[in-house]
Amino acid sequence: MARVYEKAYFGKEIIPLGEANLSIASSAVLYGLSVYTVFPVSKTEKGLAAFRLPEHYKRLCDSARIIGMDSFAISYEEFLAAVKELVKANAIDGDVFVRASVHIAAQLPGTRSRNLETTLSIFIYDATPIIPQDGARVKTSVWRRVPDFSIPSRAKVNGAYVNSVLARQDAIDSGYDDCIFLDFTGHVCELSAANIFIVRDGKLITPHTASDILEGINRRTILEIARAQGMTVHERSVDLTELYVADEVFACGTSSFIAPIKEVDKRVVNGGTIGPITAKFRTLHADILHGKAPGFEGLLTPLA
Ligand code: PMP
After folding, report:
1. How far apart are CA 32 and CA 26, in angstroms?
2. In angstroms, rounded to a whole number, what is the distance separating the alpha carbons of residues 8 and 15?
3. In sequence order, which residues have a C-beta less than 8 Å from that of residue 32 and are 6 or more positions away?
4. What SS3 state is found at 132?
5. Which of 35, 55, 195 to mutate to test the pocket of ligand 1 (most atoms within 8 A of CB)?
6. Which of 42, 172, 179, 261 is buried most, with the most CB atoms less than 10 Å from its CB?
7. Distance 88 CA to ligand 1 centre (A)
8. How big is the CA angle at 280 (ends 231 and 275), to the nearest 5 degrees?
9. What is each CA distance from 95 to 43, 91, 121, 127, 175, in whole angstroms?
10. Which helix (DSSP H) or strand (DSSP E) does residue 225 occupy?
């Protein structure tokens, strides 16, 4: 398990992680009523930098809005200041992940979300990937992705991750690294905590944003880069069997980086090795995070 750093931001101050606690009677604990985001902070030549921080902040606000957590009203400037303060307090000097959450801290309000006290928490942990980086083996989950009309995947809400836990544990129990989630019609959604891309005949294909997926910030980055480079890109419904015949399959997300998938339901992809397009995106993505990709510096927010 990744190491968690000892200082946390909680209730507008930096305190020891062990003291940053929510009540067992809070809606956050009782119903999973927290929304969150995780973003990478990486070491660049010019100091520490966060990847696409405004987009992470916006998605956090959007998640709160979808769930109806309307008392969350921290500005981007306050959010950035909190992240900077926390990074400094923990003397961060390498690549880490930062998890920022908004919790409904009110005690026993019942099953509702509006007009209730919220608390922002932030903590930092080592940037350890959640799936193998040299070729993950995945299986189709026996569990289906929660549809937008039940619990929206677009909102990154803690309680909804029970769905991901069921699916990933099923995959691990069966000897795989992660799962492929299908929606209730049988189309491909994503992995337990990463988006999915396939390459067929040089074209890049990924499930569209109305496919019960989280609108991943790395997914968006890959689409932007691919389009800028003149690649043919399709955001559309994806059949499971397209994964079986794809030239390349890869996962992308903050905690998985760009990870080649080498096996889907026992069908070996690209002879079990990383394909050229996956390799290109993986290298570029790592370079962007570390400020080594000319032209992409605008995606980084300096934290010094
Ligand atoms: N889908 C799910 C379900 C996730 O939890 C994540 C990780 N946040 C992603 C996709 C990838 O999103 P991002 O690129 O913003 O990390």
Report:
1. 9
2. 6
3. 157, 158, 159, 160, 161, 162
4. coil
5. 195
6. 261
7. 26
8. 90
9. 6, 12, 20, 6, 29
10. helix 217-228
